[in-house]
Fold these 2 entries.
Entry 1:
Amino acid sequence: MSGAFAAADAASISHAKPSGHGLSTLDLLESEAIHIIREVVAEFERPVLLFSGGKDSVVVLHLAAKAFWPGRVPFGLLHVDTGHNFPEVLAFRDATVERMGLQLEVARVQDYIDDGRLHERADGTRNPLQTLPLLDAITAGRHDAVFGGARRDEDKARAKERILSLRDEFGQWDPRNQRPELWNLYNGRHTVGQHLRVFPISNWTELDVWRYIEREGIELPSLYYAHEREVYRRDGMWRAISEVSLPNANEPTEIRTVRYRTVGDMSCTGAVESDAATVNAVVREVTQSTLTERGATRADDRISEAAMEDRKRDGYF
Amino acid sequence: MSDAVLERPAVSTLFRFATAGSVDDGKSTLVGRLLHDSKSILADQLDSVTRTSTERGFGGASGGIDFALLTDGLRAEREQGITIDVAYRYFATDQRSFILADCPGHVQYTRNMVTGATTADAVVVLIDGRKGVLEQTRRHLSVVHLLRVPHVIIAVNKIDLLDFSETAFAEVADAVRAVTDELQLGAVHVIPVSALEGDNIVQRSPRTPWYTGPSLLELLETLPTTDELEADLEAFRLPVQLVIRPQGAVVVPAEDADAYRDYRAYAGQIASGVVRVGDTVTVSPGDATTVVTGIDFAGASLAEAVAPQSVAIRLADDLDITRGAVIGAAGSVPPATTDVTASLFWLDPRPLAPGARVLTKFGTATVQAIVTAVTGKRDLDTLALEPADGLDVNDIGEATLRLASPIPVEPYAENRRAGAFLVVHAQTGATLAAGIVVSGGSATDDDHV
């Protein structure tokens, strides 16, 4: 992302249409997301954006930059670092923070494991371990609104979550007792200890996100695009070799051309074989894909049919 | 599957619709069928649903797939075979991208219907063709009518169980038309469908040769959106969300920074109408008039903007404008008032009694209010207003409210976004009701301004 929308770029990013007939899907989704981001900044004391360097959080940050132009993004970023993140994604995260002059808080799962507040799971995945550091960081930062890049098309439980989603002081989501969300009037009222999770791109699909990245020329970590990597096959996915994701003896390694559709914890995120090395090629590939992005690449969501629902109830993203 | 089928459009109009009806009517099956037949279900989702269907011994004409499993998201829903809450689905065809609000009909149908219908360009009301128009159908249509959803589609389902009989369909269709005429619903489309077998969902069915209208999906692909319909009808309104005033802390290149030193713009999503640079506008509360000198969007200067674009507007005069103010086409903004007569869709289990102190949110303005009186409750079968002294959950009634500070309210019948508001519990923050303005103001308005 450029981090700045100079007046000189006006022609290249003007997508406004001369009448109500003809705003594109992306224009409408963008407009909705910016409205949500502005509402939350206007009504909350200390919003923060969960920023992993993944494409969805990068898109939310881009929307925030557009929402407040020519001013700066009026909130900071929070990253829950599992300790198993891809190094190139962390480098991208830090470069983005630096370029845009933002504040970044990092909550480290490793710290919690080191001092015994959390224990490593037998299966080695650290995604479920993020909840406690996340909630502690929200409490310590007194954040009353927490932006995230979750989308409703990702998962059946997320399909039922509100754009502004109330969490109690334990961070829990109560799916059976959600506030009705009416017109474009968002209700962010909450009591002491409660906070809201805010998902401005709830209504975007994976393809919308990629088309938007293409249209806006948004920069992403390089592993979203096809590259050669030493990988091995596990659970029907190509897994990268790293300290935390080593192949077993019966899992031969090979060099493949792959890319990542989602960027999470290295211990549970798989790559897909792909020669899509540019954003245009990725858009084409996503258009034709017959698998959902989570089904293709996330071992953690295969644990049970309600894996995401259970984690969300406990305060997960 | 060919690429042509899966190819989705880069530019298309986003169309939002809601489905209403109960599980027994086959609504989940209809939604699942729509997603499946429009090739919007990806292989891993289909595998998962097929596996679960087989485990539960589901058979039948759909090839062993329980389509309802595609849409029931929560553990309790799958276990109990019910749908708890509004779920959102996304699919696209060559013509359009769709956002579907899937509203369950059983429990709290008003709450779910209202939630889905407030943002819908169309509502698809499902009827079991064997049962015809039920009380619930009338209630769904009443909500659709009161919320002014532009398009109503009645899907007469289970036409396969009626042996694809034209006579049987005509009987149901006539009964539906009687209700929609009575409610004075404008554009109503009635389609014979079989959600289970796919007739007239995506493709027109050869088994209903007597039906010459479009399939459900064809209809959804061609109906105009609310904003398209109303762009030229409603006057320009921008509820101000916040003032963008970076005071030097700007993201533009250093050589341009000077030009933005005194930058001040009013950010918001255009609620209705069109605004152009050079337009004369009125700011409310108050009645200051000024001229639009710029419409900015992230570095782009626009000559004009339309609902529902999110923009930032610069004005010729330095006015005291804060969040909650409304910028509107000159002379079109009604005077701010503290007295409102409204219809309330009561959504909270705690009943409403007159005298209740609440918060209301109109556009971007949140103000305290007192419900001064409940003047009646709608009989949802006849829509007649009956005497009432309070409202219970799922009731739709009329009430008068007094606001703590004046707001330029407008009848919902004239301007959808400017006439809609939330009623919120002041302590817990719960959303208590969806409100629509019937009328605002009284002769004593000037006393408050």
Entry 2:
Amino acid sequence: MTIFEPAFLLQATIYCLLTLGIYRIFFALQNKLQAILFNPMLLSISVIIPLLLSQQISYQDYYQATQIYTYLLEPAIVALGFPLYQQLNTIKHELKQITAIIVISIILAIVSTYFIALVTVMRSDIAVSLSLKAVTTPIALVISEQYQGLSSITAVGIMFAGLFGALLGPKWLSLLGINSARAQGLAIGCASHALGTAEITKKSLTHGAYSSLSLILTAFFTAIIAPLAFSMMM
Amino acid sequence: MPKIIHFIYSLSWILACLLLGKLLAHYVDILPASLYGMVFFAFALHLKWADANRIKDSIQWIVKNMSVCFVPAGVGLMSHVGLLKSHGLMMLLILLGTTLALITLVAYLSVKFIGDDT
């Protein structure tokens, strides 16, 4: 099927509107209840999967029909440059420390996740996939393929790292007594990429700025460090 | 909702930055185009090429609504039922544990070396 066939266009429109509709309902619900667990994305996913399964619609069909959302992701990520710009003057003076913190943290994270996964699941392909979970999807997929990881697991792992960070991260840090918007932003951006950044930017634009910066630095340094780490560990 | 004309203005800047990002990613293949675009966008605003006041509302609207774009990728979970059954719980625990550990480490180091801004 090509995108110019009327049948496909109709199907795409229905799936897209359905996805948007379900999302908007949960979005309104969350606004009303103000509960972090009513995450609209998470709830939409948990409604759409059973829906597709019960109607025997394959993921392939659904994904193709809703590809416009995947395309919209790119401009949405560019838009996160705005909070970054707002904090640029403050951030300039801290850039060295922030870079050092992120480099140390991702080295520890990649190595420890790799070995924990290797010891527990005992499959190096899964270990590679899981250890790339913190970084943005396009980068992780390239490295994952290069070192014989499983693309699908890499993608799903990234998704969960994003969800955990977005849903639990700020709560967890508050519990530990870390309420600094700067620390929270850097942490969520480093561990939970664009998904966590999108969530935490709703808290405050300071959160968003540091999270955006953190996700950029994490992406950049993972692209350099991960291949080195894997060739040393394997 | 932002004003339509401001939204078009914002979108033009965003798409221009993305396009530039695509161009750079084609030649310097380290980061994905969207992340290059994010940096260009921040600099365009910083250098006052783009008018931040006209862009602000649109950004708030985009940030509020962008999570819907992650939904189709998340639905992809449904095609990994087999692997999830055999290793799912363990993988989930590893992801949860290491993600929280990484968050804690970064937050702790930032408070220690940059300071607490609360």
